[in-house]
Design goal:
Helix content of chain A: 25-40%
Strand order of the largest sheet of chain A: 4-10-9-8-7-5-6
Largest interface: A-B, 141 and 141 residues
CATH class of the largest domain in chain A: Alpha Beta
Number of strands of chain A: 17
Number of helices of chain A: 17
Distance between the termini of chain A: 41 Å
Oligomer: homodimer
Largest sheet of chain A: 7 strands, mixed
Structural class of chain A: alpha/beta
CATH superfamily of the largest domain in chain A: Type I PLP-dependent aspartate aminotransferase-like (Major domain)
CATH topology of the largest domain in chain A: Aspartate Aminotransferase, domain 2
CATH architecture of the largest domain in chain A: 3-Layer(aba) Sandwich
Strand content of chain A: 5-15%
Number of domains of chain A: 2
């Protein structure tokens, strides 16, 4: 065990703009606010009696609404954010007089305090550097990443800057395009790193070591910032093991790289995917990790569920070079536009300065309603009102239980989808065109000839499966390019009776190399449809693929709009098409 | 009347980053979403059944809660945002299934549609350019300004750029410092323009014509962007007349300057201030405009109240060079973090692209709750449910009435404060130290000697009075610098029995010149305290000033913390001290 040391100084990477932001020195002033009876003429705050909202209220789920456990909450809870709670301690106070007033950039104190405890004690109980990380509330991970980019990169303009000044950002070969579109307009190099089923590769051709060791300085500075989704990677669904994390982190130490870890799906990890994959594919598959306790050699999170999750890069972040982005988008709702950033204190301080002149703080409407739902009513002395007495508020136990229930919900969808995919990968020559898809194993059939149409890795977390279409096995492949077949398949699937809209792989390619391969992939989400539709819709999809393999020509599949749209989406990142969450 | 022409092309001012953002071309894709029965595997959206909120609700004011009219709403209204409204038209739909889902960067369709109508038909019915302006929702005006700065300026770094590349921003001599702190870290020139009681000066020494005509190119490019608060200017409370606007706009046309108009106080205009000032100060004062109909020669706003307000620069924006920022911070609550940007369509398109990779959209919690309060329930065909039938929703009439009521509330506070100030500007030598402040006119007193301690202009809009302390008239002025006296006064006022915290003028100075004069001013807000406290608190304040004028020395007023804090605040912009709204 190495000695506990403070985080390293990253200020050599602060952008010109971020370095210029002046530090806060307001503590000296606080005493004046605390003078009893002081008449405050100084603030430019509107009077709270002029806020038209007297209360905010909501009907909300109880934490056990979603399985694994079987009980349903037929009776939902009520939460009320009152106009004035009368509680003096700001860390305990949840009311409209404070939540709808101007606040501090760090976030609404009650929510900030809860999330700081959750982050430090439960989500990442073993951050190695001295003192541990701090947090700052954000308007979701796109906002958080935008601020991290503002902090750690300078715009590079070929019309006025030297190539030696050009900075770069590392990312996976296939990635969440909205993040790439955040950095690309700044003129930065976007450097793709090779990936496998887990996510980013540390070694091998095109892996991180290869990219950093053999960096061509004629392209600019060696990249110093990494953007990565490590759990339920978007679009591939991979999850990075601790072993892989250690290798990548060591390279980041060696080459002085900051890691921005964007993990909206961290609580949607599916241990069953390893088991299901092994069951379907026999012993040739690597065994999965099963249910592990990742904190067994450190401090426990206090919850078996959290202990079982593959931990963040923060858990091995001895130097404080990890900036982690968390969001309520997948755990509460995307429209929350609420999340938090976790990093070493000096980085959080700079991000707070940036927040002061951009978003100021997330909306008090969402901050107070989420605080009231999760934290609930508290006594003025900080002891929480017991469930029996009052019943409001999930508290830490309820919040963790909700996260576990959500995982269960998405895991069942994932299994429903992947079972159908697994059982219909092959076109069997004696199957007639009208035969129906079944979920029975195909092994019992008398097979004359079987052609594999697609392959996939069971997603170990997240919201989608990444499916490789084996276009070279298509009977028309000798007449058409794989890319042409791919476009035709996409249009074919949208037609009756298939009626399926899938995410083209080209939307996620971050390099020319991956763009050249991207037409071989589609991303299919099990999240957005109704739970009971996942299986029948996926059946419709595989029937559609099968019908495509049986086509004798591509007549009627030349859709100019689709080609234009796919091109347009690729350019744009598709934010409006698939929703910013794609 | 000149012919109606389209707005001019401003793309030569787009920043390198903003120019690089790719245009959206998603329209081609929409038809696929509309295919009946399509199974959408493409989007990465969470399923709405996993949002823990079943409803959002609120108890809200009725529009007539605040005077001018006398009826009080003892019974507040209830608004409910349901989980699923079942209304197909997105412009009419207000529910959690849509509001808490990923949305488009422009804003929640129902709210966007309402605000677009309000902006185009009621707030600015006479925008001269062809087609009129578009709007985009923001997370408040700080966010809106930050995005405008991102669009229209390039960072200038002396370590790598030429001085000729340095861009500049025009602002008033005294300004809202958070805006200045948005541009200063980018290395831009911040250029102060002289101001008077109205606001920015067009002509005269240091006025806009002087600054632009005599620009010294050795400092960089001539400034092409203006940041201005034209109504209830912060901190001076001035309001710019239409005549002045025309002169400034003509200069902006001549020198190709974009105007960013930040008007959080536009509905808090106080026609009575002109009258009160004239009454107190006799006929030597210029007469105020009285109640005018500013739209009498154009299209009416449809509301006498809105017609009576000094209109935006947009009303004379023939070329489309005005970007206006509106916010709910002062009309609903600062914690809303919700506002909108109004500008020519091409500018709104670029700002939308910026929004996609930063804030994405304001929180759905606030968007849906404000939409539900203001717009209320609507029939599926777009006709609103009548008040009688349902009673929910303010609709356009209620929204305008609420704005008028708010104006009344702040206007009464302003009058309460300024009457006390007006009647206590003078130290009367035969007044004993213990005499009480009265609201009677001092004219009746038998005066032996009177010394004026301070002066002010009645604020014509907004939330504060800007008071000039006539430090040169202080008996100790021969022993101490005015600056020293100013700091001593600030500390003196915080002590018993005065107990007043005032905003030091130095917090608002944007140039060395104005910083050198700033200690002569304080900004005192009538907004944040309880209504019934405004008069007694202001009495305490003027008593404090009087007591300061009667001091024989400055003993006990050397407060290092205060000096440090004031310096620190000046550096920082004071966002955390006075709240971002200071």
């Amino acid at each position: 065990m190495t000695a506990v040391t403070p985080p390293v100084d990253l200020s050599h990477f602060y952008s010109y703009t971020a370095s210029n932001r002046k530090p806060s020195s307001v503590k000296e002033f606080y005493k004046y606010f605390l003078i009893p009876g002081i008449a405050n003429f100084a603030g430019g705050l509107p009077h709270p009696s002029y806020f038209p909202y007297d209360t905010l209220e909501a009907t909300v789920a109880r934490p056990r609404r979603l399985q694994p456990t079987s009980d349903k909450d037929a009776i939902p809870d009520r939460v009320i954010v009152p106009k004035d709670s009368g509680i003096p301690d700001p860390r305990l106070r949840i009311d409209l007089t404070t939540a709808l007033q101007y606040g501090t950039a760090e976030g609404y104190p009650a929510l900030l305090s809860f999330l700081r405890q959750f982050t430090r004690d439960h989500l990442h109980p073993n951050v190695p550097y001295a003192g541990g990380p701090e947090i700052l509330l954000s308007c979701g991970n796109t906002d958080g990443f935008s601020k991290a980019v503002d902090l750690f990169t300078n715009v590079w303009n070929p019309g006025r800057d030297w190539i030696q000044q050009r900075e770069g950002v590392l990312c996976e070969e296939f990635a969440y395009m909205n993040a790439i579109q955040t950095v690309r307009p700044r003129g930065l190099n976007v450097i793709s790193v090779a990936m496998d089923g887990q996510g980013m590769c540390a070694s091998g051709k095109g892996g991180l070591a290869d990219v950093l060791e053999n960096w061509d300085f004629r392209r600019g500075r060696r990249p110093h910032l990494m953007y990565t989704v490590t759990i339920g990677q978007n679009p591939t669904g991979g999850t990075l093991s601790v072993e892989r994390r250690k290798k990548i982190y060591a390279l980041c130490q060696q080459y002085d790289v900051i890691i921005v870890e964007d993990d909206p799906y961290w609580n949607l990890q599916f241990p069953s995917a390893y088991e299901m994959e092994a069951r379907h594919r026999g012993s040739s598959q690597e065994p999965g990790p099963g249910i592990r306790n990742y904190n067994e050699h450190g401090k426990s999170s206090g919850y078996a569920f959290l202990d079982s999750l593959v931990p963040s890069y923060l858990s091995i972040d001895t130097e404080g070079r990890v900036v982690r982005l968390d969001t309520f988008s997948k755990t509460v709702a995307p429209g929350s536009r609420l999340g938090w950033i976790t990093a070493q204190p000096a980085v959080i301080e700079r991000l707070t300065r940036i927040t002061e002149t951009t978003t100021q703080q997330p909306s008090g409407f969402v901050q107070s309603l989420i605080a009231e739902m999760i934290i609930g009513k508290q006594d003025a002395d900080g002891t929480r009102v017991s469930q029996k007495e009052d019943g409001r508020g999930w508290h830490m136990d309820g919040w963790v239980r909700w996260l576990e229930g959500l995982r269960g919900g998405y895991e069942r969808r994932m299994i429903a989808m992947c079972n159908v995919l697994e059982e219909n990968k092959y076109l069997l020559s004696q199957q007639s065109e009208n035969s129906k898809t079944t979920s029975d194993h195909v092994d019992d059939w008398e097979v004359v000839d079987r052609v594999q149409m697609f392959d996939f890795v069971w997603p170990k977390a997240g919201m989608f499966a990444w499916v490789e279409i084996l276009l070279d096995s298509h009977p028309l492949r000798s007449q058409y390019s794989a890319e042409r077949l791919s476009k035709a398949l996409w249009v074919h699937l949208t037609k009756k009776p298939h009626l399926c809209l899938v995410g083209p792989g080209s939307l996620f390619a971050t390099s020319e190399k991956s763009a050249a391969e991207a037409h071989r992939y589609i991303r299919i989400a099990f999240a957005p449809m109704d739970a009971e539709d996942v299986k029948p819709f996926t059946c419709r999809l595989v029937e559609g693929v099968r019908a495509f393999w049986q086509r004798k020509n591509l007549d009627g599949l030349e859709d100019e709009d689709a080609a234009m749209a796919m091109q347009g989406l690729k350019l744009k990142g598709g934010a409006n098409f698939l929703g910013p969450g794609y």
